[in-house]
User: Which sequence fits this backbone?
């Protein structure tokens, strides 16, 4: 029996809700100074497997702190110990049953007002970009990327990545080998985001907000479902 569009959206939202629960436990139990990024990543993997039913991730687990928050996803920087007054983000792509989630949040240890202001800008910028997308869901990936960059500047920051999102769906989601443009929210994608997938189904998108504080050499990251919820 085929999965209806309403069911597909519900499965994706359920996967994200499970990711939210995982992140709540990560924040409450695991994030602390004095451990390395790799140690935290390994603890997250163990927690996800033992308590949240995560058997695989569709992309690598990413834990970045301090100056490593400025680096692109593709980098694999040397391991770094999380400090008392640090900023860090966690980016996970857990698969719940057969449905992908992609979720990232930024955390601040200590009371540095600059780091807190950067972190606290993420959700408002994300929500503004989402609202502007829903005013014209037929816009192209490049148009939404430009909006994300504009809203980052409006909040007083630079946009810190070449992508502002991508597809998500039934694992593994649609991909075009060696093509980092067509199925992404990025410069050069002149395709309408409302175009159906190759299977004829509605495509669902993740919206990523990367904010960059160049003065203090810090980055922050926030992502979740754009087209559901």
Assistant:
């Amino acid at each position: 029996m085929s999965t209806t569009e309403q069911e597909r959206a519900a499965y994706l939202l359920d996967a994200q809700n499970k990711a939210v629960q995982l992140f709540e436990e990560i924040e409450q139990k695991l994030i602390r100074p004095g451990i390395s990024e790799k140690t935290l990543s390994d603890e997250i993997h163990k927690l996800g497997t033992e308590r949240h039913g995560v058997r695989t991730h569709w992309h690598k687990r990413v834990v970045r702190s301090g100056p490593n928050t400025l680096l692109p996803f593709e980098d694999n920087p040397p391991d770094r110990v999380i400090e008392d007054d640090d900023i860090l983000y966690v980016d996970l792509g857990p698969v719940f049953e057969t449905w992908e989630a992609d979720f990232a949040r930024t955390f601040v240890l200590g009371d540095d007002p600059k780091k807190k202001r950067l972190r606290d800008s993420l959700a408002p910028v994300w929500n503004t970009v989402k609202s502007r997308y829903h005013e014209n869901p037929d816009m192209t990936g490049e148009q939404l990327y430009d909006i994300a960059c504009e809203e980052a500047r409006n909040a007083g920051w630079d946009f810190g990545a070449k992508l502002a999102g991508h597809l998500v769906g039934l694992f593994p989601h649609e991909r075009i080998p060696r093509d980092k443009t067509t199925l992404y929210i990025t410069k050069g994608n002149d395709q309408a985001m409302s175009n159906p997938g190759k299977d004829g189904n509605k495509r669902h998108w993740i919206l990523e907000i990367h904010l960059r504080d160049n003065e203090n050499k810090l980055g922050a990251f926030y992502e979740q479902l754009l087209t559901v919820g």
